[in-house]
Amino acid sequence: MNRRTAVILVNYRGAKDTGVCLRSLHASDLAPRIVVVDNTPGDPDLPDVIAQYPEVHLISSPANLGFGAGNNLGITWALAHTDCEFIFLLNNDAWVEGDSILNLESSLDRHPDAGIAAPKIVFSGQPNELWYGPGEVDWRLARGIVPGYLKDSRSQSAQTPRYATFASGCAMLIRSELLRKIGGFNPCFFMYEEDVELCLRAASHGYRLWYEPSSLVHHVVQGSLRSEGDEFLSVFSPKNKSLTFYVAHVIKNRFFNLRLHGNAYQKFLFACFFPVYLAKLTVIFIAGGRWDGVRVLYRAIAAGFMERCQG
């Protein structure tokens, strides 16, 4: 067993996906320690899945705490009960190649200034389509972006290891020392953009982020919100049945990141670009008949300005 890394999975009504993820982890070159947080709570199918892996530690959340707080339950347990050097956060609707974790560990060994290592992430079943490559924080909209998103995962950009500024919460290897120093995800973020905030907070403490494409992760994408057989849609597509959920959290949390971490110049950039983006989203939602999306959009902006958030 790999004693260097503990893996944290958060399950939300996704026992089938969790089972696939666990199988891939146990088929790894060195199977890691694994913590599963049931954020449903009480997913009726999860006990049968976990029973196949008696060494997995299961934490039952008292309620759906959201992505960040759910992961924090697992992080807290792993830091208190293991001596692992690294914590690997992995979406339960993702699965790893045999050497994925070892390659991430090796990348942090080679780059002691990096506190986080991010793998290349592709769509499950479509390995030539990129979901995450080397990500960057784009202050024009206070978000993380992935150049090459939805394009060829074999491109030179996606294949080149290098420093980046944004890692997706879908899959990231984090030094335990970093988490002990700065904590896990910000509890003000229920879901979305919390990975951007964690990367920004790590950078503010002097830690860099390394993108390692030799580590490959396959991602179902939107597994907790998309029913089996549903097509993949942009989060802000008027056809997306979860549109209002995405809008409420994504937009509010971008304002949180701006308030928590943006400097004067970055806030100026945001002030220049966001109004154009807002107008574009408003037109898209109205054209698609999603007046509910428009209402939630402006409420999310107000919440982003007014609700309390702390770093």
Description:
The radius of gyration is 19 Å and the shape is globular. It has helices at 15-26, 46-51, 67-81, 100-110, 156-159, 176-182, 194-204, 243-261, 264-287, 291-306, and strands at 2-11, 32-38, 57-60, 86-90, 94-96, 114-123, 126-132, 136-138, 143-145, 162-164, 171-175, 208-219. The mean pLDDT is 94. The strands form two sheets. Strands 1, 2, 3, 4, 5, 6, 7, 10, 11 and 12 form a ten-stranded mixed sheet that branches. It is an alpha/beta fold and 311 residues long.
Task: Using the CA coordinates, give the radius of gyration.
Answer: 19 Å
Helix and strand sequence: EHEHEHEEHEEEEHEEHHEHHH
Largest sheet: 10 strands, mixed
The residue ranges in which pLDDT falls below 50 over 5 or more consecutive positions are none
Helix content: 40-55%
What is the overall silhouette? Answer: globular
Distance between the termini: 36 Å
Structural class: alpha/beta
Mean pLDDT: 94
Q: Proportion of β residues?
A: 15-25%
- Can you count the helices? 10
Tell how many strands the DSSP assignment holds. Answer: 12
In short:
Helix content is 40%, strand content 23%. By secondary structure, it is of the alpha/beta class.
Task: Name a few traits of the molecule.
311 residues, alpha/beta, 10-stranded mixed sheet, two-stranded antiparallel sheet
